[in-house]
Amino acid sequence: MKLNSIVIGGVILGAVALSVHSQNAAQKPALAAKVAIVAMRDAMLNTQDGRKAMAGMQAKFEPVRVGMEKRQAELQTMAEQLRKGAATMTPEAQQKLNNEIAARKKTFERDADDLNAEVEQEDGRLMQDLSVKMGGVIDEYAKQNGYTVVMDAAQPVLWAAETANITPDIVKLYDQKHPTAAPAAPPAKK
């Protein structure tokens, strides 16, 4: 992330330096660097494709998440049972319950890690697919609107005028260029 900031800063400084150099060398007015920001992830997720893909991810992983919550509740119930019964349980029964809790907790944590990895992998694939299309849209938009630099708002931006934020325009243009068959329906609540 720090390297991206340095590269972006270098690009901006290079554009400004080139502009100043051009002015001094040719004695012509310098072209001002026109900079825009786009919240890339937000833009991708707010397109029709992005909403549809996220709804698909939610449908795929929601049952697993619900199952994980149920298992976590069972672990909490067992821990409470151990705590409440500590005074009346035999040491062997306490040890047996404690071992069972530890084994289930270990399995739960491993499954949770696997689920998180799978969700991150799916999210990465989704973002990769969308970013290819989005890159073309941003390229076209920047050229049509005379931008010198378009930066991702997720990178450290110290300040930017609201007029520099082109995210809504990018989402609209993306949806025009890549229409989906049908808009994604909001996820059903249980």
Describe the structure.
- The protein has 190 residues and is mainly alpha-helical.
- It has a single domain (34-177), classed as Skp domain (Protein Binding, DinI Protein, Chain A), CATH 3.30.910.20.
- It has helices at residues 2-26, 40-46, 48-85, 91-144, 167-177, and strands spanning 35-38, 149-152.
- It has a two-stranded parallel sheet with strand order 1-2.
- Helix 2 packs across helix 5 and helix 4 (91-144) crosses helix 5 (167-177).
Any chance you could write out the topology, listing elements then pairs?
Layout: H1 2-26, E1 35-38, H2 40-46, H3 48-85, H4 91-144, E2 149-152, H5 167-177
Parallel strand pairs: 1-2
Helix pairs in contact: 2-5, 3-4, 4-5
Short characterization:
Helix content is 71%, strand content 4%.
Unreliable parts? 1-26
Mean pLDDT: 82
State the strand order across the main sheet.
1-2
Number of strands: 2
Oligomeric grouping of the chains: single chain
Q: Distance between the terminal alpha carbons, to the nearest Å?
A: 38 Å
Order of helices and strands: HEHHHEH
What is the count of structural domains? 1
Name the beta content range.
under 5%
Biggest beta sheet attributes: 2 strands, parallel
CATH fold-type name: Protein Binding, DinI Protein, Chain A
Q: Helical amount among residues, as a percent range? A: over 70%
CATH H level, superfamily name: Skp domain
Number of helices: 5
* CATH top level class name: Alpha Beta
**Category from helices, strands and their pairing:** mainly alpha
Radius of gyration: 26 Å
